């Protein structure tokens, strides 16, 4: 592709994206294909001779788009949003164009230093305690990772390093019986982290929750910790959820910190979805209560904060726990800057070596929308969810299952699991909207997770009208 051709096709690709967004309102939210349809429509072997880029765009429309579930659709209410946005896309594109590998400071200093600044801006924007920020005199800092799952795994490795007195990285997890704690509503990535760390899924304790709020029962945590310690277990990692995936429940981080005080456990806060709402002062106290007592916290700008997947930020109070657990320097990466100690080498802050310039898209988001724009976006999601909550309350056939959490509404049909799931499946099949389900205290519920950057009140009305029609 010549430079001129690249310019021409680059414009065409951006036009394609703008047209794709403009047309979303009129297409079903859910993919309209059966297993294997997309695969069968594509050639079984790559082309011998290169093809014009237009041919790829044409196939995109014809073969790929029908097989997409449209995450940027204004009536996508399933799971949690994965906001893309114009500014993030352009930032991401520039990152691809630069194509730098920021594995260590020396391989591209600006990649590391822009990330340090942007991650610190985000810490300020959310009002995170000072200890998590990268300052000249402090011990903390933040890093962009691909996902919250990786961040949680990384935090667990740091916790093992710390609790083992540094031996875990060299001699492995050993004969110690390590125990990991989260509520029964903790994200599955906690169990996966324990599996990947070689601790095994069975070391993870699923602590009961309060049936009404779905937040961790901290008294139950205390009892389990005491029993485990009596039985020779060593608590290594406790995860508090600030905004669970199922219902948006918020654990009492302060009480959890007090419960584990005196043990060797690391306290990690999983605020993957809800954390970014702390950009609004009215949500900050609730989201950050007790967070100053945590060793680490993760939140995902790639969910509700307009930063095209993937972009997850992990902050720690002591960056040395990460670097001591994960640093390993082969000869070919030795360099004067790293040895001087004057720079940060982010490859020591996560499992992988190579890393993209992800800070570009987060920088673009923060600068283009500003904190005012981000607050307006979060508030719009919360307001629309409050509207959904009213619609549920005004319809006697439905009931809320848990109190609305920020922009997440969990409700069900009063007739039970069968009508609840039937209504949700019929709504999804209509193509008008897409909701996902959960199970709360053994009973099925549907979730409306608002927060797309393209959703308006009219989209809620249209969804609600369709739900009435299919009942
Ligand atoms: C989405 C989510 C995760 C996992 O996020 P990834 O970035 O996809 O790994 C973890 N915890 C909570 C509470 C979540 O909502």
TrEMBL record:
SUPFAM superfamilies assigned: PLP-dependent transferases
Q: List modified residues, type N6-(pyridoxal phosphate)lysine.
A: 303
- MF term (GO), any: transaminase activity
Gene Ontology BP term (one): amino acid metabolic process
- Classification via Pfam families: Pyridoxal_deC (PF00282)
Organism superkingdom = Bacteria
GO cellular component, alphabetical, reads: cytoplasm
Q: Which cofactor does it need?
A: pyridoxal 5'-phosphate
* Entry keywords, A to Z: Aminotransferase, Decarboxylase, Lyase, Pyridoxal phosphate, Transferase
The family line of this record is: Belongs to the group II decarboxylase family.
Q: What is this protein called?
A: Aspartate aminotransferase family protein
């Amino acid at each position: 592709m010549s430079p001129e051709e690249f310019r021409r096709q680059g414009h065409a690709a951006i036009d394609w994206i703008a047209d794709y967004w403009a047309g979303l309102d009129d297409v079903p939210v859910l993919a309209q294909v059966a297993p294997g349809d997309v695969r069968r429509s594509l050639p079984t072997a790559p082309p011998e001779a290169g093809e014009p880029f237009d041919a790829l765009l044409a196939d995109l429309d014809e073969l790929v788009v029908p097989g997409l579930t449209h995450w940027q659709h204004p009536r996508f209410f399933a799971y949690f949003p994965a906001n893309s946005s114009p500014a993030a896309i352009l930032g991401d594109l520039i990152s691809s164009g630069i194509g730098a590998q920021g594995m260590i400071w020396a391989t591209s200093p600006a990649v590391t230093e822009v990330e340090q600044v942007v991650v610190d801006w985000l810490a300020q924007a959310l009002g995170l305690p000072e200890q998590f920020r990268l300052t000249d005199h402090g011990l903390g800092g933040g890093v962009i990772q691909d996902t919250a799952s990786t961040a949680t795994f990384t935090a667990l490795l740091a916790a093992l390093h710390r609790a083992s007195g540094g031996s875990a990285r060299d001699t492995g997890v050993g004969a110690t019986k390590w125990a990991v704690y989260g509520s029964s509503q903790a994200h599955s990535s906690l169990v996966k982290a324990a599996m990947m760390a070689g601790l095994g899924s069975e070391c993870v304790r699923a602590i009961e929750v309060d049936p009404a709020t779905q937040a961790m029962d901290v008294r139950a945590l205390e009892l389990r910790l005491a029993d485990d310690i009596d039985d020779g277990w060593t608590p290594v990692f406790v995860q508090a959820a600030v905004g669970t995936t199922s219902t948006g429940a918020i654990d009492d981080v302060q009480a959890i910190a007090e419960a584990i005080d005196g043990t060797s456990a690391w306290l990690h806060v999983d605020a993957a979805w809800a954390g970014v709402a702390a950009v609004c002062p009215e949500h900050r106290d609730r989201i950050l209560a007790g967070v100053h007592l945590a060793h680490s916290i993760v939140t995902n700008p790639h969910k509700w904060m307009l930063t095209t997947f993937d972009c997850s930020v992990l902050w720690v109070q002591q960056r040395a726990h990460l670097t001591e657990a994960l640093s390993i320097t082969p000869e070919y990466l030795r360099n004067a800057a790293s040895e001087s100690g004057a720079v940060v080498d982010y490859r020591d802050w996560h499992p992988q070596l190579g890393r993209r310039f992800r800070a570009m898209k987060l920088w673009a988001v923060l600068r283009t929308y500003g904190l005012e724009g981000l607050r307006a976006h979060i508030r719009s999601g919360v307001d629309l969810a409050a509207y959904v909550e009213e619609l549920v309350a005004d319809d006697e056939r439905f009931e809320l299952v848990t109190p609305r959490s920020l922009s997440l509404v969990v409700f069900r049909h009063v007739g039970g699991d069968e009508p609840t799931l039937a209504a949700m499946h019929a709504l999804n099949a209509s193509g008008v909207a897409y909701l996902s389900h959960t199970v709360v205290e053994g009973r099925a519920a549907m979730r409306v997770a608002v927060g797309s950057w393209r959703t308006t009140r009219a989209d809620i009305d249209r969804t609600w009208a369709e739900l009435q029609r299919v009942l």
